[in-house]
Write a structure and sequence with these properties.
Elements (H helix, E strand, L loop, with lengths): L6 H9 L4 H14 L2 H6 L8 H17 L2 H19 L14 H19 L7 H15 L1 E6 L9 H10 L6 E4 L2 H10 L3 H9 L15 H7 L5 H12 L4 H8 L2 E8 L7 E3 L9 H8 L12 E3 L5 E3 L6 E2 L2 H4 L3 H8 L1 E8 L16 H27 L6 H11 L7 E4 L16 H15 L3 H7 L1 H17 L10
Parallel strand pairs: 1-2, 1-8, 2-3, 8-9
Antiparallel strand pairs: 3-4, 3-7, 5-6
GO molecular function: triacylglycerol lipase activity
Protein name: NTE family protein
Keywords: Hydrolase, Lipid degradation, Lipid metabolism
C-alpha cells in the first residue's frame, strides 16, 4: 500500500499544478487521502437509479456481444433518454475532485461502444440511409453543448485560459458565444483553424496583442462624450481575431461564432450575430459593438462584406452597444438557433463574480450566502424596474432601462467556470495587462477549468460521439470508385 502524503502537502501540489495532468494526479491523491475514492467506487447514490443503470449496462453488453443490433438500438434509445436527466445532475460532481461515481463512467463507456457498434455494422432490415436519418434525428433531439464567454473587461482575458484548457483536452465545443471581452476571445478562437489554435496555445503568448484600452485626454472626453478611444480597441480586435465575416469564420474553423450586441434604440431588439442570422457581417465590427460599454466607448455601426469584397453598412440606421447589457448569456437564442442543450459558462463579469463564489460550496453557510445573493439580485432588479417606470418620460429612463436589463439577467449555465474573486484585482479591471499579467489571467482560466473537466467530459460525451458516428455512416454510404480500366 503506497504511503499517502499529508493533506497539506497534497493540497499544495493541487494549488501549484502547472498542467491538467499534474492537477488530476494531485486531485486523485487528495481524494484518496480523504476517502473520496471509495465514494467513487460504490454505486449507491441518491441522484440516480444505480440498479437500473447496472441492469442497462449488462443488457447493452449482452446484446452487443450477441450481435442483436435491432434490439440493441431500441435499448440504447430507451436508456439514454431515461437516464439523461439523472446523470446530468451537477450534485454528482460536488464530492470528489477527480470525478464522479465509476458506474457513471462505465455506463457512458458502454453507451459510446454501442453507438459506435451500431454506426459501423450493418443492421438487418435497415438501410444505411435509414440509419443515417435515425442518427441525425437522435443527435438533433439530444442537442449539443456550447461554451459561453461573459463580459468582464480585463477579467475577461481569463477566458483564453478556459478555452486553452478545454482545447488541450479536446473538449472545446463547436459552438461558442461571447459578449464584450468574451466576444473578442470567441472571435479569436472561431477565426482560427485547429492547427492555428494549436500554434496559438503552444507558442509564446507575446504574439497576443495586449493593448485594448487607451484613455482620451480630458478635452477628448468632452469632445467625444466617451472616456476611451474606440480605434484602439478596434486595432486590438483585428490584431487578435483578424477580419472575416461570420460565414467566412465558420468555413475557416468549423466553429460557430455567436456575438451578442445590444441596441441603442428603444424599439430595437438585442441580437445574437452568427453565420445563420448575419452571415455577411464582419466579425471585427460585431466584437467592437459588443465591447461598446456606454460612457467608455461610443455605439458602433455594424459593417458587412459583400460577395464582391466591398464593405457596406449593415442595418445602416442602427447602432449597437455592449452585448452584456441585454444578452450576456443568450441561452434561449442559442438553443433555438443551434440546438444547444448544455451550456458551459465562463463567467468573469466584475458585478457578478462576488455573488456566485458560494455555488461550489456546501452546508448551511453556503445556503445562507445563496439566499442573500438571491435577495440582492431580485431586489435590485425590482427597484430598477420600478424606477424606470416612474421616470419613463425623463432623460434618466434609458440609463435605468439598461441597468435593469443588466440586473435582471441570469448569469449562470449548466456548468460554470468562474473567475476567482479577489477584491485587489478590481484595481486592474479597466487596464491593459502586462506580459506577466496576461500569463496570469490565462493560467487563472486554466486553473478554474480543471476542477470542472470531469463534469464537462461526462456531460458532453454523448453529444460529442454523435458527429463522429454520423461521419462514419456517411463514409460507408459514399460510392466506391472501382478501377475498371481494361488491359
Amino acid at each position: 500500500m503506497r504511503r499517502l502524503l499529508p493533506r497539506f502537502d497534497l493540497q499544495a501540489r493541487l494549488d501549484q499544478a502547472q498542467s491538467y495532468a499534474e492537477w488530476l494526479a494531485a486531485a486523485e491523491a487528495l481524494d484518496e487521502a480523504e476517502g473520496l475514492l471509495e465514494w467513487r467506487q460504490t454505486d449507491g447514490s441518491a441522484f440516480f437509479h444505480e440498479r437500473l443503470i447496472r441492469d442497462h449496462i449488462r443488457r447493452m453488453r449482452t446484446l452487443r456481444q450477441s450481435g442483436d443490433l435491432e434490439a440493441l438500438a431500441a435499448l440504447l434509445q430507451e436508456s439514454v433518454y431515461r437516464h439523461l436527466g439523472e446523470l446530468n445532475n451537477p450534485e454528482l460532481y460536488l464530492y470528489a475532485r477527480s470525478g464522479t461515481k465509476h458506474v457513471v463512467t462505465e455506463y457512458l463507456d458502454e453507451v459510446e461502444c454501442v453507438m459506435r457498434t451500431l454506426c459501423e455494422q450493418t443492421i438487418p432490415g435497415m438501410s444505411e440511409a435509414r440509419k443515417l436519418a435515425l442518427f441525425e434525428q437522435a443527435a438533433l433531439i439530444y442537442g449539443r453543448p456550447a461554451l459561453m464567454l461573459s463580459g468582464g473587461a480585463a477579467f475577461g482575458i481569463y477566458h483564453l485560459g478556459v478555452v486553452k484548457a478545454l482545447w488541450e483536452q479536446r473538449l472545446l465545443p463547436q459552438t461558442l458565444a461571447g459578449s464584450s471581452m468574451g466576444a473578442i476571445v470567441a472571435a479569436a478562437v472561431c477565426n482560427r483553424s485547429d492547427a492555428e489554435l494549436d500554434d496559438l496555445f503552444a507558442e509564446s503568448q507575446d504574439r497576443i496583442h495586449r493593448i485594448a484600452l487607451r484613455w482620451r485626454t480630458p478635452v477628448g472626453m468632452w469632445k467625444h462624450r466617451t472616456a476611451m478611444d474606440e480605434t484602439q480597441v478596434f486595432e486590438h480586435i483585428v490584431a487578435n481575431a483578424g477580419s472575416a465575416t461570420f460565414l467566412d469564420a465558420y468555413r475557416h474553423s468549423g466553429r460557430i461564432l455567436n456575438i451578442s450586441v445590444s441596441p441603442t434604440r428603444t424599439r430595437q431588439k438585442p441580437r445574437v450575430l452568427n453565420y445563420l442570422t448575419s452571415p455577411d457581417v464582419l466579425v471585427e465590427y460585431a466584437a467592437q459593438a459588443s465591447c461598446a460599454v456606454p460612457g467608455l466607448f461610443p455605439p458602433v455601426a455594424l459593417q458587412a462584406r459583400r460577395a464582391d469584397g466591398r464593405q457596406m453598412p449593415y442595418m445602416s440606421t442602427e447602432t449597437w452597444i455592449d452585448g452584456t447589457v441585454h444578452g450576456d448569456l443568450p441561452r434561449e437564442r442559442l438553443a433555438r438557433l443551434h440546438n444547444v442543450n448544455q451550456t458551459i459558462v465562463s463567467q468573469a463579469n466584475p458585478h457578478v463574480i462576488p455573488f456566485i463564489t458560494h455555488r461550489k460550496q456546501r452546508g448551511i453557510q453556503a445556503v445562507g450566502k445563496r439566499v442573500v445573493s438571491s435577495f440582492i439580485h431580485t431586489g435590485t432588479a425590482e427597484l430598477l424596474d420600478i424606477g424606470r417606470q416612474l421616470l419613463e418620460k425623463t432623460p434618466l429612463n434609458p440609463v435605468l432601462a439598461q441597468a435593469h436589463a443588466v440586473a435582471a439577467q441570469t448569469y449562470l449555465g449548466d456548468i460554470n467556470i468562474q473567475y476567482p474573486f479577489r477584491p485587489s484585482a478590481y484595481l486592474k479591471v479597466i487596464s491593459n495587462p502586462t506580459p506577466q499579467g496576461l500569463a496570469d489571467y490565462i493560467r487563472a482560466g486554466e486553473r478554474a477549468t480543471w476542477p470542472q473537466m470531469a463534469m464537462i467530459r461526462d456531460l458532453t460525451r454523448i453529444s460529442r460521439v454523435f458527429p463522429e458516428c454520423i461521419a462514419v455512416i456517411r463514409e460507408r454510404m459514399r460510392p466506391r470508385v472501382v478501377d475498371a480500366r481494361m488491359d
